[in-house]
């Protein structure tokens, strides 16, 4: 467990062997927030908020979380009201199931499933910058904002609850859920830590919510 204390609150970045931890750590450090990187359930329970990053395949992610005995811990912490942010693959496993490699059960914290993007007119995977269009409004993405964010993915969320969709990006004929939220469960398909000033602003707003300085709506 690596601790980087800068204040009273602390964000725990969940380490299960597959996340792009370095860039998320750098972003939180640049913003001046305390964070730790840990797979220790007791440390995760003490944190003010959790971040689940991820790069790779849905099935491997769930297998690694299972081996690390983290699935029940994550669910318990979310049920207790603790804010959880899933990034990229970390967002995808928040849903009920995914179809990468084979059908795999997800964490089931959000309704919906993760399926392969299909559009013959655009390149898959979807890599690069895209504009976020707002479908809803909350503390992290306000309706008047149209930030550009950075994506790297081939799978995306479908059959989700429309009420959970806060912002999306258009790619060919595809509508990509970019930012979803259900109460204290937050998911970003893009990488906020690689999305410049706009992305850092979103991470800062999540960290402030975790520290209790922003009220959850």
In short:
25% of the residues lie in helices and 30% in strands. It has helices at residues 21-31, 41-46, 58-67, 71-79, 89-92, 196-210; strands at 2-4, 11-14, 35-38, 49-52, 84-87, 97-98, 104-105, 113-116, 126-131, 133-134, 148-153, 155-158, 165-171, 174-182, 185-188.
Tally the helices: 6
| Radius of gyration, in angstroms, nearest whole number | 16 Å
Q: In terms of per-residue confidence, which ranges show pLDDT below 50 for 5 or more consecutive residues?
A: 1-8
Q: What are the secondary-structure elements, in order, as H or E?
A: EEHEHEHHEHEEEEEEEEEEH
Mean pLDDT figure: 92
- Biggest sheet features: 9 strands, mixed
User: Beta-sheet strand percentage?
Assistant: 25-35%
Q: How far is the first residue's CA from the last residue's CA?
A: 32 Å
Oligomer: single chain
Helix/strand/pairing category: alpha/beta
- Taken from the alpha-carbon principal axes, the silhouette is globular
Helix content: 25-40%
What's the total number of strands? 15
Order of strands, main sheet, comes to: 1-3-2-4-5-15-14-13-10
């Amino acid at each position: 467990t690596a601790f980087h204390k800068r204040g009273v609150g602390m964000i725990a970045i969940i380490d299960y062997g597959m996340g792009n931890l370095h860039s998320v750590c750098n972003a939180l450090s640049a913003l001046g927030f305390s964070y730790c990187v840990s797979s220790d359930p007791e440390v995760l329970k003490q944190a003010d908020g959790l971040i689940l990053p991820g790069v790779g395949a849905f099935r491997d992610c769930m297998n690694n979380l299972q081996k690390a005995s983290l699935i029940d811990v994550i669910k318990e912490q979310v049920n207790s009201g603790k804010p959880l942010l899933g990034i990229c693959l970390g967002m995808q496993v928040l849903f009920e199931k995914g179809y990468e490699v084979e059908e795999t059960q997800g964490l089931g914290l959000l309704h919906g499933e993760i399926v392969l993007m299909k559009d013959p007119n655009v390149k898959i995977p979807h890599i690069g910058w895209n504009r976020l269009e707002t479908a809803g409004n909350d503390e992290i993405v306000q309706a008047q904002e149209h930030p550009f964010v950075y994506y790297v993915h081939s799978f995306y969320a479908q059959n989700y609850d429309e009420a959970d969709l806060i912002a999306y990006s258009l790619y060919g004929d595809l509508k990509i859920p970019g930012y979803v939220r259900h109460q204290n469960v937050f998911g970003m398909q893009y990488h906020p830590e690689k999305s410049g000033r706009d992305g850092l602003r979103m991470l800062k707003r999540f960290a402030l919510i975790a520290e209790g300085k922003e009220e959850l709506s």
